Amino acid sequence: MTIEHGGALDRAIARFGAKRSDWLDLSTGINPEAFPLPVIAPEVWNRLPDEALLNQALQAARRYYGVAEGASIVAAPGTQALIQIVPELAEPGEVAILSPTYQEHHAAFARAGWAVMPCADIGSIPATAQAVVVVNPNNPDGRIVAGDELLGLAQRLQARGGFLIIDEAFADASPEVSIAAGAGGDNLIVFKSFGKFFGLAGLRLGFAISGGEIARKLAERLGPWAVSGPALAIATQALRASPELEEFRGRVFARRARLSAIFKRVGVEEIGGTALFALVRQRQAHTLHEELCRRHILVRKFDYARDWLRIGLAADEPDFERLEQAFKDISG
Fold first, then answer.
1. Strand partners, 278
2. Residue 74 lies in a domain
3. Is the whole model's pTM more than 0.90, yes or no?
4. Contacts 24+ apart (CB under 8 A), 173-176
5. For position 151, what pLDDT does the model report?
6. Calculated CA dihedral for residues 229, 225, 134, 197, nearest 10 degrees
7. What is the pLDDT of residues 139-196, one digit of tens each?
8. Does an H or E element contain 14, and which?
9. Which of 44, 214, 237, 317 counts the most CB atoms within 10 A of its CB?
10. CA 187, 139, 109, 99 torsion-angle sign
11. From residue 47, how far is each of 38, 43, 219, 237, 288 by CA, in Å?
12. Domain Aminotransferase class I/classII large: where (predicted)?
């Protein structure tokens, strides 16, 4: 199963030319503004990450995500690692995945021998499913399933020995969407991505919130020193920075409003998205994708929905103006 992701800038450069610095990459859902990095003590670079450093990061994450006292939390080198491990923690059966969505969930379960059933909504999940995956808010359309509906689903799955995975990679900008506070049993696993909202995807850091048995299995599979010391130190500081975070979050929403305003002015139909990206519909979306690439602007196209494009946030006003002008030039 070949999966195309956003961020494939090297391939775009190879085909359309120019230097990396000439490109405006809007193909990912990563915040273009990186959260300020703290000063990192030299020993954090020099030594293996110890238990104290890991525990500081986990405690900061517990508070930030509102994790219940009885729940467990595990740090991993990115949520992608968790996505690949979890399907291997139980005997294969049937898994329902609310689709279309982030395709790595399908790939990981299929690789582990599960029968994967794409489902359009909660109501179409078959009673035979032993596991369910919901990306919430969804990537790429931004669909949000209400928390009480998800918690009810987790209880129904528990009754038949199953479990629910909620991938909240894009929930940080809108924490009211999260059901992390409801996790604590092995019937519910919540994934959290640190890098997207904080604009630090290169750290490769994510968290799983679950019951104790799932957390134990995850930690065992990840092994010692799964997350680097610098990543743990940076996350600890960022997750504790309450006043700065509110301003940071406000700038995300300001950029998102700016992006929507451009679509209205240039006549592009916006049909969904999250705080970190928009999903638009264009009849000739792949042609538009190529025309933008010729202007060294990269957005995300989809093979399964050829009239969709996902467009991320620009960092500053000149980049927004560049995007708007490109739309005008292409249509005009």
1. 273, 311
2. yes
3. yes
4. 173/197, 173/249, 173/252, 173/253, 173/274, 173/275, 173/276, 174/137, 174/274, 174/275, 175/66
5. 97
6. 10
7. 999 999 999 999 999 999 999 999 999 999 999 999 999 999 999 999 999 999 999 9
8. helix 9-16
9. 214
10. positive
11. 18, 6, 20, 19, 49
12. 44-322
Flag whether pLDDT at 325 surpasses 70.
Answer: yes
Residue showing tokens 């209400």: 146
pLDDT value at position 2?
59
Q: What is the DSSP letter of 187?
A: T
- Residues forming a β-bridge with 190: 166, 209
When divided into structural domains, the chain yields a total of: 2
Residues 6 or more apart whose CB falls under 8 angstroms from that of 216 comprise 72
Instruction: Tell which residue, 290, 256, 274, 309, has the closest CA to residue 33.
Output: 256
- pLDDT above 90 for 1: no
Could you give the CA distance from residue 166 to residue 209 in angstroms, rounded to a whole number? 10
**Residue range(s) defining the domain that contains residue 281:** 9-29+244-331
Residue 229 contacts residue 52 (beta carbons within 8 Å): no
Question: In this structure, are 265 and 321 located in the same domain?
Answer: yes
Residue range 47-76: mean pLDDT, rounded: 97
- Last-in-domain residue among 239, 257, 286: 239
Model confidence over 229-288: pLDDT tens digits?
A: 999 999 999 999 888 999 999 999 999 999 999 999 999 999 999 999 999 999 999 999
